[in-house]
Amino acid sequence: MDSDLGHRGQETLCEVCTTELDRVAEVGLLSDRELDLLQRPKQKLNINIPVRMDDGSIEVFPSFRIQYNTARGPTKGGIRFHPAVDADEVEELAFLMALKCAVANIPFGGAKGGIQVDPSRLSTGELERLSRAYIREYHQNIGPNTDIPAPDVNTDGQIMAWMRDEYEAIAGRQTPGVITGKPPLLDGSEGREFATSLGGAVVLNEFVRESNMGNHGLDVAIQGFGNVGSYLAKFLHERGYSVVALSNIEGAIYDASGIDVPALFESYEDGDDLFAYGAERITNAELLTLPVDILIPAAIEDQITSDNMEEIQADVVLEMANAPTTSRADAYLNEQGVPVIPDILANAGGVTASYFEWVQNTTNEYWTEEQVRKKLADQLQGAFANLRVIKTESDEERTWREAAYTRAVDSILDAEQLRGNLTRDAP
Ligand code: GLU
User: Fold this and answer.
1) Which atom of ligand 1 is found nearest the CA of 192?
2) At a CB cut-off of 8 Å and minimum separation 6, what does 374 contact?
3) Is 78 in the pocket of ligand 1 (CB under 6 A)?
4) What is the pTM (predicted TM-score) of this model?
5) 100 included as an active-site residue
6) What value does the CA radius of gyration of the chain take, rounded to a whole number of Å?
7) What pLDDT digit, counting tens, does each position of 242-300 carry?
8) Which domains does the chain have, with CATH numbers?
């Protein structure tokens, strides 16, 4: 059996996380004490939640909240509803959130939550009771200055609204900053809905500009047509890229001459599915190996692995999902001269807009969509430029992921040092 399994079967951090941390440690940047501190989450919570189902029975759902690091601020990260959620996955994702907040330069530590459930089999009432129950179970451990949840896989603004309402019912006062990704009517931020995708488009544009690829007509394949993949298709189409393939859980569509994304959106809104569009139907696995300029995994973990890495034909990979590339595949692609723009930079637009939402909730002053778009672009262009500097200033060739880890780890450890939790060796 191949050992290239990403986070599954790992006892601690995901393979790509430990590999990258080891690499940062190897080049002399991390002591054993520092490495140890980074490899341990601050707090792991695991609660089995009973929920009354519509038929009167009680079902118990395993749930998690892992708060990874608090040195740079309150912990922050989404809650996912998925049958494959387990403690290892949530821990890996919480670790990535800690790094992501540091790369995006926003004042939060990282966290992640999840419920082991297939939400598609729940009625709306069951979904609401489960969401509220999660907050009842964890309310003592979350709060605007403690730990701030948000949406993630299969959770959305409606679920955030129920969760906020439940928290406030217990707290006895309005507390909009306890959760982000809320609908704008309930103090959510304009632009949060599409911020992850807009952030990805900004980062890709920076990359393309500085690599002189010239973005007009570059072919893009996007795996995933959920919140992230669908808005990204729209933004990239608007910016002159040619989106040639898109997929959902059932399969993919491919049109080498470019999909008419606005037409697809229109038919989609009219209730058609992706496949009614009329392009060639291919599988998700085939989408990943198409001859495109840019490949964008925007769905779930462990999609580019040792099983398919040799067949990848793209010139660049933009990781919009969290942890879609295993460490072996990541190393292989980089050796082949295929840069992988890592998740902790590429998809940091979501948590950055969450930070903007939290600022607006805290100050009670609300921004226009245009202001959010501008601030988001500035923040991510700044993050990209910081990694660029690390890449150019290093003696050895550094991948984008190595640069991102170096930046994040330094920022977290410097904060730990300032708090007196660590003595870093003088450089
Ligand atoms: N779930 C998103 C992520 O993985 C956003 C988290 C947030 O907004 O706090 O980055």
Assistant:
1) 8
2) none
3) yes
4) 0.93
5) no
6) 21
7) 999 999 989 999 999 999 999 998 888 777 788 988 899 999 999 999 999 999 999 98
8) 43-176 (3.40.50.10860), 195-346 (3.40.50.720)
